[in-house]
């Protein structure tokens, strides 16, 4: 039986969750692209989930250092980001956030991204 990975339209009021790592050596919440590995988007989770669920979706295991923060599709769009449901084989709740066309994901854009979260 084939898995349904058809992307959904995302309404502005839909909540999204970002996974973060609050360990001593963790990176907290990512707010910019990892250009060195060819990254073109930042990943979020469709819906609002707690830190444990976010850890399982992203890392595939529980970590005591898991953290999460929440935004809405509309907040990201209002800041100029493009938000797309991009389900993967292992995570049907995967959402991709892209910066504005032709914009470099620099410190200013990272600030705008961070300001979208509660």
Outline of the structure:
This protein is α+β, with helices and mostly antiparallel strands and 118 residues long. It has helices spanning 51-58, 73-78, 107-115, and strands spanning 15-21, 42-46, 66-72, 82-85, 94-98.
Would you write up a description of this structure?
- The chain is built from three helices and five strands, in the order ββαβαββα.
- The chain is globular.
- The model has no long low-confidence stretch (mean pLDDT 92).
- Strands 3-1-2-5-4 form a five-stranded antiparallel beta sheet.
- It has one domain.
- By secondary structure, it is an alpha+beta fold.
Strand line-up of the largest beta sheet: 3-1-2-5-4
Structural class, from helix and strand content?
Answer: alpha+beta
Question: How many separate structural domains?
Answer: 1
Query: What overall geometry do the principal axes of the alpha carbons give?
Result: globular
Low-pLDDT stretches are: none
Tell me the strand percentage band: 15-25%
- Radius of gyration, taken over Cα atoms and rounded to an integer in Å: 14 Å
State the end-to-end distance: 39 Å
Mean pLDDT across residues:
92
Largest sheet: 5 strands, antiparallel
Enumerate how many helices there are, as a single number: 3
Number of strands: 5
Order of helices and strands: EEHEHEEH
């Amino acid at each position: 039986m084939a898995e349904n990975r058809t992307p959904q339209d995302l309404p502005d009021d839909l909540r999204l969750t970002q996974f973060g790592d609050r360990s001593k050596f963790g990176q907290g919440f990512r707010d910019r692209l990892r250009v060195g590995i060819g990254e073109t988007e930042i990943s979020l989770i469709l819906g609002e989930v707690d830190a444990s669920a976010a850890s399982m979706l992203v890392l595939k295991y529980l970590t005591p250092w898991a953290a999460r923060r929440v935004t809405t599709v509309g907040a990201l769009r209002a800041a100029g980001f493009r938000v797309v449901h991009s389900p993967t084989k292992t995570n049907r709740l995967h959402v991709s956030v892209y910066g504005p066309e032709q914009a470099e994901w620099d410190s200013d854009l990272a600030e705008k991204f961070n300001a979208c979260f509660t």
